[in-house]
From TrEMBL:
GTP binds at residues 104-111, 184-188, 242-245. GO terms for molecular function: 7S RNA binding; GTP binding; GTPase activity. This is Signal recognition particle 54 kDa protein. The gene is srp54. It catalyses: GTP + H2O = GDP + phosphate + H(+). GO terms for cellular component: signal recognition particle. Part of the signal recognition particle protein translocation system, which is composed of SRP and FtsY. Archaeal SRP consists of a 7S RNA molecule of 300 nucleotides and two protein subunits: SRP54 and SRP19. Belongs to the GTP-binding SRP family. SRP54 subfamily.
Length: 444
């Protein structure tokens, strides 16, 4: 993802500053070089890189660190502030009635983004609807309809109508009850007159409150031209960067933001409806620098918990904190974890665990963990009520039976029981903790 290597390479240089109270010119030069290298690798525009490096250099050498601040913290703060300034504020999107138009080239992820954004607004308690006007790409209608069904949001489209402006007009009428109307438009494989003219006509009719440009993270330097063309045609208020879960770096999108004088609205991190994040500059840069992103994490946990509670009504997480931690509790926790998204993304948000820990793990370690969770679930499905409530009663013969029943090796059944013991011990520790201990832990 954007500037992915920055966190680890920068931490290396910063660690060399440990114990120092003053920064030398060489120290600053080394750090600036690391930052430049990462930014250029991430496809960030050279002019932007130059601008950023000179501000960091100047501030690091001239600003007096506040009393008691180490050289490391001083420079980290400056880098953090300058990077936050580079990525800019997040696009202003009030949680109230509005119409949003999505533009972008074919394949950039518009249709997917429309459904994801609708899902995101629905989780904020609003009623969104997606209007699909893409008559150019075969299959766009079905894809949008299916995704909106999965997102459980209203949808309007008409596979028999050829005029996108007419679809937009009808769509606005049909979705009059919605709070948020997201209008998806056609893309083309490249920029051309027809695309721009069609977009202008839809924009004129819809008169959206916000125009968002959807960009694939892999766009690189081409972002500038695209941004200019779309910006000249309809004006761009914000950018959505998609496919940040892949290998692409996304730095090019920053040039688009700069070019259109706009900001980043959302980040797309996968193909499912829930794989979307509202862009938050502070959290984003904190995560990048390995400082964690508590806000995103808290939001995901909260969402997963409320979904879980809605699913099994008689379950109260408080009970788990008080009494015995059973395998059933463990299964619920695993379900909640799954709802939070890929484990690697979740771990990245935990302060102190982010970056640093991820760098030490082999790339596939997280997949294995996901796979293991899946096996554990299959095994638990083969257990009796009594075994789930009282895992200590599971001896050798029962392990054999469970293994046969689930089709999983005995070894994995034992691993599950071990994992449960470990989690159970951890829960006991939490139970013995006061609120202030918890808060202290979260602040670290
Ligand atoms: P459109 O032509 O702009 O409407 O693009 P689509 O929404 O059809 O997306 C093109 C492809 O990119 C589809 O296969 C999507 O599943 C995929 N896609 C979109 N957003 C993301 C994302 O954030 N991550 C990943 N991995 N794939 C995405």
């Amino acid at each position: 993802m954007v500037l992915d290597n920055l966190g680890s390479s920068l931490r290396g240089s910063l660690d060399k500053l440990r114990g120092k109270s003053r920064l030398s010119e060489e120290d600053v030069a080394e750090i600036v070089k690391e930052i430049q290298r990462s930014l250029i690798q991430a496809d960030v525009d050279i002019a932007l890189v130059q601008e950023l490096s000179s501000s960091i250099e100047e501030r690091a050498l001239n600003e007096e660190p506040p009393g008691g601040t180490s050289a490391r913290d001083h420079v980290l703060r400056i880098v953090y502030e300058e990077l936050v300034a580079l990525v800019g504020e997040s696009t202003d999107l009030p949680l109230e009635s509005q119409t949003i138009l999505l533009a972008g080239l074919q394949g950039s992820g518009k249709t997917t983004t429309a459904a994801k954004m609708a899902w995101w607004f629905s989780k904020k308690g609003l009623r969104p609807a997606v209007i699909q006007t893409d008559t150019f790409r075969p299959g766009a209608y079905d894809q949008a309809k299916q995704m909106c069904e999965r997102a459980e949001v209203d949808f309007y489209g008409d596979p028999d109508e050829e005029d996108p402006v007419e679809i937009a007009r009808k769509g606005l009428e049909e979705t009059a009850d919605a709070d948020i109307r997201i209008v998806d438009t056609s893309g083309r494989s490249g920029l051309n007159e027809t695309l721009i003219e069609e977009l202008k006509s839809i924009e004129e009719l819809v008169a959206p409150d916000r125009n968002l440009l959807v960009l694939d993270a892999a766009i690189g330097q081409g972002a500038k031209d695209q941004a200019k063309a779309f910006g000249d045609a309809v004006g761009i208020d914000g950018v959505v960067i998609t496919k940040l879960d892949g290998t692409a770096k996304g730095g090019g999108a920053l040039a688009a933001v700069d070019q259109t004088d706009s900001t980043i609205a959302f980040l797309g991190t996968g193909e499912e409806v829930a794989d979307i994040e509202r862009f938050e500059p502070n959290g984003f840069i904190s995560r990048l620098l390995g400082m964690g992103d508590l806000k995103q994490l808290a939001e995901r946990v909260e969402r997963a918990m409320s979904e879980q509670e809605a699913e099994d009504e008689d379950w109260d997480p408080e009970d788990m904190m008080k009494g015995e931690f059973t395998l059933k509790d463990m299964r619920r926790q695993m379900d909640a974890m799954n709802k939070m998204g890929p484990l690697s993304q979740v771990l990245d948000m935990i302060p102190g665990l982010g970056g640093g820990l991820m760098d030490q793990l082999p790339d596939d370690a997280m997949d294995v963990t996901q796979e293991r969770m899946q096996s554990f679930k299959v095994i638990m499905d083969s257990m009796s009520e009594e075994e789930l409530e009282n895992p200590r009663s599971i001896g050798k013969t029962r392990i054999e039976r469970i293994s046969r029943g689930s089709g999983k090796p005995e070894e994995t059944v034992r691993e599950l029981l071990e994992q449960h013991k470990m989690m159970s011990r951890m829960m006991k520790q939490f139970q013995g903790m006061g609120d202030s201990d918890m808060q202290r832990m979260m602040k670290q």
